[in-house]
Amino acid sequence: MRVRLPGLYIALAVVLAGLIHVIAVLTLPQLAPRNAHARLAPLGPANTIIQLPAVNAGQQVMPNMAPDVRYAACLFDLSEGPVRLRADIPDELWLIAFYTPIGENFYTVIGADMKRGNVDLIVTTKDQAVTDATGDSPEALENLVVVNSPVTNGIALIRAPLAGPSRAGEAERALKATYCGRPAAPAPVAVPPVGAAPAAPVPSGR
Amino acid sequence: MPVSNAQTHNSLWRDEGSTSMRALGYFIGAFAVALILGIGSAWYMIERGSMLTTTRIGPWTSWLSEGNPNADPYTRAHLARSGRLPLSSTAARYFAASTDSSGGRLSAACEYTIAGAPLNARWWSIALYDARGSIVPNPSNRYSFNSEEAIRRSDGSYEIHVSQKVRPGNWLPNGDDPDRNLTLLLRVYGPRETDVSGIGQIPAESLPKIELKRCE
Q1: CB atoms within 10 A of CB B150
Q2: Do B67 and A103 touch (CB under 8 A)?
Q3: Which of B19, B34, B144 sits opposite A68 (nearest CB)?
Q4: Edge-to-edge, what's the strand order for the sheet holding B158-163?
Q5: Which residue of A181, B31, B135, B195 is surrounded by the most CB atoms within 10 Å?
C-alpha cells in the first residue's frame, strides 16, 4: 500500500501539470500587460490618426518594427458607432491592416489591389448598421468598404514600406494626410452631452 | 528521507502521524512539480514554439498562423506577449533567425555574410535587431536592406555583410557592443506564390544563408 503512494503522486503531478499548462496557455493572452493596444494607447486618443515615430535605437513602440516602413495607427473605439478611415494610397506597397488589441489581423487592405488609389473604409461591429455612419444616401455607400470588426476596441495600422531611405519624408506626409474618426454625417453630437463628456459649453471660470 | 526518520520512533501514534505528514509532503511536492512542469512547458511552447506552431528552415523560424484570428492558443499567447502587430500569412510572411546557418548564436562580436536567392514577392526586407527586438544603433543609421535598395546581381541574388567595420556593397553594421546578441528578421510582403488558402509560400531554398565569417 505504502509503496504505491509515490506512483499515485506522480500521476497526480502529471495531471495537475497538464491542467496548469492548459490554464496558463489559455489565460495568457488576457493577462499579457504589454500587448499591442497597451503599447499604442499612450501615444494618442482613440479614433484619430497617430503617426508612429520612426524606429529609433532603444525606443520603439512595438518590438521588431521595420526600420524601412513608416507606420500610422488608429485605435478605433466603436462603442459610440462606426469609425471611418480614409486614405489616399500613393503607392501599391501600402497596407492597411485591422487588429484586435492582442494583434489578431482580421482584415487587410492591400494597396496593390486598390484600383482607384484611395480607400474609404467604415469599421463597424456586427450589430451596427452602416447607414448609421453615412446617413441614408446610397451613393455614399457605393465606394465604401465595410469592415466588420469582431471587437469594439481595436487597431488599424497603416504601413508605408519605403522604396528607399530618401522616400521617408514623402511617406510620412502621405500618412499624415490620412483620416480616421467618427463619420461626420450624423453631426448632432455636440448639443446635449448625454454622458459625462466634457465637450459642450462648460461654465466659464473653470 | 522521512522514512528513516519515522523508524526511529516506536510508538504507533507517532508512526501514523508521520504517515500523514509524509502524505502531505508528497502532496505539496507533487503540486510544486506540477506547477514547474505546467508553467515551464507552457512558457517554452509559447516563447520558443513547437512543431505545432512553427516551422524551422535552417536558422529561420516562422510562426505559421501568427496574426491569424483563428490561430491556436499557443500562437495567440505568443502574439499577445510579443506586443507586435504582424500581418497574417496571406499578406506577409516573417522569418526570424537568432543563429547562423551552422547553428551558432548571432553575436555582434562576429562578422556574417547573408547570401540570398531572389524572393518572389512585392517587397521584402531584412532587418537587424538585438535580442529584445530593438534596432542596433550605428553611426550610419543603417538598420535594414529591402528589395528596393539592396544591391543585387543580375539574377536577383544578393549578399549583405553584417559587421562592425565598413564593408563595400550592402553593409549592415552590427554596432559596437560585442556582447550584444543579434536577431535577423526577414519580412516578405505580398508573396506571389500562394497555396490554395492564399498563404504565401516561400520555398526553403530561397531563404538566405547566414554564413559566419570571423569573430573577434
Answers
A1: 19
A2: yes
A3: B144
A4: B170-173, B158-163, B110-116, B209-215
A5: B135
Give every CB contact of residue B166 below 8 A, 6+ residues apart in sequence. Answer: none
CB contact (8 A) between residue A34 and residue B83: yes
Dump pLDDT digits (tens) for A164-181: 878 889 999 999 999 999
A1 touches chain B (CB under 8 A): no
Q: Which of A151, A104, A145 is nearest to A126 (CA)?
A: A151
Indicate if the pLDDT at residue A190 is higher than 70.
no
* Alpha carbon distance B156, B70 (integer Å): 36
Q: Which fold has domain A5-54+65-181?
A: Immunoglobulin-like (2.60.40)
Cβ contact, residue pair B42, A24, below 8 Å: yes
Q: Which of B19, B85, B170, B177 to mutate to test the interface with A (most CBs of A within 10 A)?
A: B85
Q: How many CA atoms lie within 13 A of A75 on its CB side?
A: 16
Q: Which ranges of chain A does DSSP label H, i.e. alpha helix?
A: 5-31, 36-40, 131-134, 138-142, 168-176
Buried/exposed code over B168-202 (b: 16+ C-beta within 10 A; e: otherwise):
eebbbbbbeeeebebbbbbbbbbbeeeeeeebbeb
| Residue B78 distance to chain A (closest CA, Å) | 8
ipTM of this complex prediction, to 2 decimal places: 0.85
Instruction: Read off the pLDDT of each residue in B48-70 and give the average, rounded to a whole number.
Output: 93
